[in-house]
Amino acid sequence: MRIGIDARITAYRQGGIASYVSHLVPSLVAIDPETDYRVLCSRRAAARDEWGENFGRVTVWTPCHHRWERWALGLEVGRLRLDLLHSPDFIPPAFGAARFVITVHDLNFFYYPQFLTAESRRYYNDQIDWAVERAAHILADSEATRVDLVRLLGVAPEKITTVPLAADSAFRPLPPPHVAATLARYGLLPGYILFVGTLEPRKNLPGLLSAYRLLLDRNATGAPLVIVGNRGWLYEEVFARVEKLGLTDRVRFLHDVPDADLPALYNGALLLATPSFYEGFGLPALEAMACGTPVVVSDKGSLPEVVGEAGILVDADHPEDIAAGMARVVEDHGLQGQLGQQGVARAATFTWEETARQTLAVYRQVLAM
To answer: What are the beta bridge partners of residue 254?
Structure first.
């Protein structure tokens, strides 16, 4: 059997789906030395990945999220004679393989259409119904997304398998000297409040900034707020809110941070705040927990099931509640230690090996149809 995996997204974006693909492929390499795989890579991607002998790289020209993507990619992959094609970025081609598996990470565009650009809304809204119908099976990152697929799109429950993601093994408690050396390069000292993620509306950064302002006004903390992430879309309100709240000297924006520096940045934080309106999974929360950093997260979407009892849940719609959740951690050293220990233990239950095993089981199930 020959399986294709669409990895084009790794050449276009960082984080999220790109991280998922970048970890899934080598994890499959480690557990499946027999199946014939073809990994579809963008012509823009550097040919630096080395996989097992049964994993062949195929360069394709069709760009991600192009208006003619379904048909153009189908024409490119048709020559590969694929028994199954896995599309980790929602939308499969219209043809080109005998069967299709897709991963749906979230359906936030149904809940918050105003948080997407008009082009992105058209891309997903015009195709998601077709995609879930076209797929022989659907992978969902979380139970929250699985429930959304059933409730919002009427997908049969037996057609969906929940396969959680995991944190990279690099995310772990690190020696203080190593952390301090990395922080020094950014002009930071340990003990800041941290946010990690793309600057986009559903991350609720304006709400986090308002909550942070409340903490400062109440003298609950003097810690700076460090925002790690690149500009995504509709991000202008974030910078406007910083100016409006008088936080220019209190907030640090770090863009284009190398992946290798992220573990130390998590380790150096007093807490990670992720008050998102919606997350299909929420990898930064899991990465922070793996580093032993307390997390304060929204009670929406998948975040409650990811953090379990190892984090503080807050109402993303109310900055007052976000501030109260952060204050609990800032003011209680015992709680900091407790959440740190619980987070490490919780994160250890998620592994990329298990993600790959469950994904491979779905491939084999579909191929046996």
So the answer is: 228
Q: Is 176-347 in the same CATH topology as 2-166+351-367?
A: yes
Report whether 288 contacts 265 (CB < 8 A): no
Q: Which residues in 150-237 belong to E strands, given as ranges?
A: 160-162, 192-196, 225-228
What percentage of the chain carries pLDDT values higher than 70? 99
Confidence of residue 154 (pLDDT cuts 50, 70, 90): very high
What gap in Å lies between CA 91 and CA 131, rounded to an integer? Answer: 6
Local confidence band at 49 (pLDDT 50, 70, 90 cut-offs): low
Going from N- to C-terminal start, the domains of the chain cover 2-166+351-367, 176-347
φ, ψ dihedrals at 84, nearest 5°: -155, 140
In this structure, whether the domain defined by 2-166+351-367 belongs to CATH 3.40.50.2000 is answered with yes
CATH 3.40.50.970 at 176-347, yes or no = no
Asked if 35 and 5 count as a contact pair (C-beta separation under 8 A), the reply is: no
Instruction: Round the average pLDDT of the chain to a whole number and report it.
Output: 93
C-alpha count within 13 angstroms, C-beta hemisphere, residue 284: 27
Beta strands in 163-229 (DSSP E): 192-196, 225-228
pLDDT above 80 for 234? yes
